[in-house]
TrEMBL record, chains A, B:
<keyword id="KW-0808">Transferase</keyword>
<dbReference type="GO" id="GO:0005829">
    <property type="term" value="C:cytosol"/>
</dbReference>
<dbReference type="GO" id="GO:0004371">
    <property type="term" value="F:glycerone kinase activity"/>
</dbReference>
<dbReference type="InterPro" id="IPR004006">
    <property type="entry name" value="DhaK_dom"/>
</dbReference>
<dbReference type="GO" id="GO:0019563">
    <property type="term" value="P:glycerol catabolic process"/>
</dbReference>
<feature type="domain" description="DhaK">
    <location>
        <begin position="7"/>
        <end position="327"/>
    </location>
</feature>
<dbReference type="InterPro" id="IPR012736">
    <property type="entry name" value="DhaK_1"/>
</dbReference>
<keyword id="KW-0418">Kinase</keyword>
<dbReference type="InterPro" id="IPR050861">
    <property type="entry name" value="Dihydroxyacetone_Kinase"/>
</dbReference>
<protein>
    <submittedName>
        <fullName>Dihydroxyacetone kinase subunit DhaK</fullName>
    </submittedName>
</protein>
<dbReference type="Pfam" id="PF02733">
    <property type="entry name" value="Dak1"/>
</dbReference>
Amino acid sequence: MKKFMNEAAAMVAESLEGFVSAHGGLIMFGAERKFVRRRHLTPGKVAIISGGGAGHEPLHVGFVGHGMLDAACTGHIFTSPTPDQIIAAIEETDTGAGCLLIVKNYAGDVMNFEMAAEAVLGRHRIETVIVSDDVAAQGAARSSGRRGVAGTLIVEKILGAAAEAGVNLAGLKALGGRMETQIHTMGVALSGVTVPDTGRATFTLEPDEMEVGVGIHGEPGLYRQKIADADTIARLICSTILADTGLQNGDRALLLVNGFGGTPTPELYLMYNVARRLFEASGIRILRSLVGTYVTSLDMAGLSVTLSLLDEEALHLWDAPVLTAALQRGRHDPTGGC
Amino acid sequence: MKKFMNEAAAMVAESLEGFVSAHGGLIMFGAERKFVRRRHLTPGKVAIISGGGAGHEPLHVGFVGHGMLDAACTGHIFTSPTPDQIIAAIEETDTGAGCLLIVKNYAGDVMNFEMAAEAVLGRHRIETVIVSDDVAAQGAARSSGRRGVAGTLIVEKILGAAAEAGVNLAGLKALGGRMETQIHTMGVALSGVTVPDTGRATFTLEPDEMEVGVGIHGEPGLYRQKIADADTIARLICSTILADTGLQNGDRALLLVNGFGGTPTPELYLMYNVARRLFEASGIRILRSLVGTYVTSLDMAGLSVTLSLLDEEALHLWDAPVLTAALQRGRHDPTGGC
């Protein structure tokens, strides 16, 4: 394991310090460095708070800023933030309109965000949206078995834009509910990951193997198979997603191809190219696209493909301006662009 | 070698097709797909054209758009674009004010851009700026021995902003000349790279080794040593850069920490944190920062640190709005931000 770091135990804190230092115009540490928040809060706007283990950067801290999150809580690597961190974020960023918590569907995350919500009961109005976009576990019920993966950034973008537009807490909760069945992600890995603390790989692949249906915590996927060319991998992913979506001919969608940390951008664009053609051949209209390394699993080589239904409301909110470290877009015409 | 690709020979073309498809609002292919250009040219503005081998993405295609490049020519992996490509880009994007060519200092690139400039002599006014920011070869004269590496994106941003502001060809050439001694980059690698065509690694490091003074074409660096912690690596890089710059106490600078493709963003922020402290301890004022994966060497694990002097003019141009696939910034206050 080769990494740019000092002591493994201090890695997350040192990296966050650099992040806040580099983007000091947009963000700052919250109380006692328990979370990262916008430098300027908007009174009367619902505060959007997310968080999760470190190792998925730029998710979530990279999405703190105008048009997305108000605060993000970072735990240790692949470890949920503590209720204490989440409570501190709620207390500092709730300006009176309540807080919406966006939580990836992992037992630890769900539990700690729930504990935080209970702890502030009576003092803050809280609603929670659980993201569970991973289609790999086809049989599992969305509410229990499905993990929250790259689609989380779409939820954060769309709910963040809605909050910015003045939608209230109940409206955001309802919008989050409608999005629950609209986002579908599947991932493949060409390598496992090595966790800095332990120096151990979470799983090891042979030089000719790939892991299909992986999440973002280095856990093994659904199955392992011989590595294939990009066309074959894209067919496997896209057909699994299409079987899950129930999308109809003529439906409009956002296509996100997301790298897991160790995959170069040109490979992501190559896979985007193949996936877009496959979806379009199935009658889906790809109206918006995003290609890049956004929701990661340390330095894992691999990627995920996300297809998200874009109704008129979601399209409008996706196109709204955003100013965060990892995603910036002004009021220009986004047609066909990222 | 595991990569998301079909045939190695088609990799660059397939990836570029995906890139143009994903960012169709901003960019398009030029004639016969020989280059990527802005969708909308500005009549009377000097056209800024760059290019180089593939394998460095998002450089250069990711920087085509308002405020940076008008066109970028991509060669095969680590191979200069042909004069034919560059000539086509000149002919299509010169709207009457001439073309400025930004060329990284490699023999093949310099030769092919020169041949293109000669071929259009009398029909187009052409000036060229050679980027040679790599300080690793301390003894070498800037004009011959030093490679153009991550600092290239700073040259493209600043000259692109100047062209957008209406500076003419002679003014841009002069500005490029002034920047020549202001940008200083040094890189280290934790791995070699595997070129898809050959499937061979350009160099191989032991599990406890790093390569110091590397460029972006997988060539070996100055020397190899035992891997060290982030503080030690940063001291090595920053002291080499400071010895080269001649920067004085109180000078203002831009700090760029750039990943080579296989290094996760949190490690880049960690190194940024250490490097910023070291430079500030030397009296340099870090006014602007950029941290990310911008100028790459396929999937090489490693990074470079760039320190660039920011006089009043450069600061103003760095802050100007930009709208490209890889770099977007509106008219907000960039103080302390990226």
